User: What shape does this take?
Amino acid sequence: MNRIYLDNAATTAVAPEVLQTMLPYFTEHYGNPSSVHATGRDARKAIEEGRRQVAAAINAQPQEIYFTAGGSESDNWAIKGAAFANRKKGNHIITTAVEHHAVLHTCAWLEKQGFKVTYLPVDAEGFVTAKQVEDAITDETILITIMTANNEIGTLMPIAEIGEVAKAHKILFHTDAVQAVGAVPLDVKALNVDMLSMSGHKFHGPKGIGALYIRRGVRLDIFMQGGAQERGQRAGTENLAGIVGMGKAIELATTNLPEKAAKIAALRDRLMNGIVERIPDVRINGPKDPSRRLPNNCNVSVRYIEGESMLLRLDLAGIAASSGSACTSGSLDPSHVLLAIGLPHEVAHGSLRMTLGSDTTEADIDAVLDVLPGIVSDLRAMSVLNHETTTVSDETFACPRA
Assistant: This one.
């Protein structure tokens, strides 16, 4: 069976060029980067080249890039590190209701430590505004943390405008850009961010490696004690091969990025338009303006059935998709993102996220559009849900094409 992979928001395949670049650092250039001998110095050079590549991709300086174990660690370090480093100045943090759980759970933990957190609501398309952020600022506000792009519905937040507000009020601003890096062009200076999180496996790099951009001059609490690695901020022998792979992956991902993004967006629009045309009673979740959502993101609610059932049937047909964040796939609760944009529980449960990748083809999209309507029809015929039990208005489902 020729399988079709449409779960690239969860993880991506390691690019062949990335794998080939990494392999020598397992068997030949395996030195400890902290060692003073030639093998160690070669390893150090490789790490600094990876740091340079990551920095160049977001218009940062190499000394502003700190390697971590992934996006969740980067989020934890940025938020906790900023909170505790600035606790004498205040104890208030601003975020949104639709953040990844790496942010939401970290903020909830900080609340138990005595911090106060404002969770800003979003509109029906998942947006928060710079005015909302500014209105939430108090004399005690020390950190704003808002994602660049939503991992479930693809909403691209107005980060540059929010960054201007943060800068005007002299408040640290962190953005979780895990879904955005390699998908849309990013410039930390233009975005006015102080910290930015990323993860290698979201753009065809290896798992277990990420990075945190920390603007020069920003002071965070040390993430991990025990050694002088990462300029004394994160102890532990560096993930040499992972850093090499992440550097190569981000360089490949951001080369000719606007052209790549346009190609994937065209396929996404073909998928979303086809779903709306072929399946009645569906709702595209996220921004109606395709330029304001991630180019690879399609999130749809299908009335009267459950998303898990669709996923299982698609999987049997050789199509990999998801019902939301991979980090909450074991939960029976509906997506907190879909609830935040106003969907009732039963509608949120009937949602499907398909995220395209660089190797997605028109034939893949057409195959999905050939299979999905039949799956929906079969499941609806067996469903106990009906018009009386679904409370969302019909107007919600009369959405325009993307």
Summary: The longest helix spans residues 257-278. The chain has two domains: 16-254, 257-397.
